[in-house]
Structure prediction request, 216 residues.
Amino acid sequence: MKKKLSTKQEAIVEFIKGFLEDHHFPPTVRDIQAGCEISSTSVVDYNLRILQREGYIRRRSEVSRGIELLKDSSGREARPDNVVAVPVFGSIAAGEPLHIPGAATRSDADEVVDLPSFLTRGNPEVFAVRVKGESMIDALVADGDLVVLEPAADARNGDMVAAEINGDEVTLKHFFMQNGTVTLQPANAQVDPIVVPADKVQVKGKVVGVVRSMYN
DNA sequence: TGGTAAGTCTGACGGAACTC
DNA sequence: GAGTTCCGTCAGACTTACCA
Prediction:
């Protein structure tokens, strides 16, 4: 059971929220002191400790302006305007089935990641899958990367797509169609392209972004 | 009414970055 | 390099609210 915030603590949370909206970086303790008309920085620090303990903020002591707002003063989760939650639906690799959202719901997602909103361009249907394999390495998509896709039933030549072949396997490749034949072109000279009749291929989504973690 | 915990305050310190 | 400014943190004391 979370304790109710004091008036001062509510004011601090609201000030941090407003400061983030105005400046797009967190305030210092002295910014908060001035903004909330608090007489001492230690009062700010004291209340920030409580807010951290109660889960309203997170502080990074090793850096200045290391305050991160987790909830607003009413207890609602705080999420920056420029960040959206994107569901991650399993992995994608040639020969392995990929669960694609549609009839399913977001609750089926393996995980949810926060991504910059420019990646989704406001499309709420955007989803992500994790890449297995190196067949797209020359397109800067490596094993372990997260590819962000928007659902699509068709694609233009050159698009990077998640395509279902023969209704049972899904692969990530560049899409080319000519004379009723689809070529799914890898971005790796070591991997052969897949050439199949157009009626055997169904585009599941177009890649709109790639996210890579540098952690091992 | 006294004890206790929470909240608030003043004042000061040390580290980092910046300026001259 | 010395001085200044900014920043986060700490010590200790005071005030307030609550409870037995």
Q: What stands out?
A: The mean pLDDT of chain A is 73. The first helix of chain A runs from residue 7 to 23.
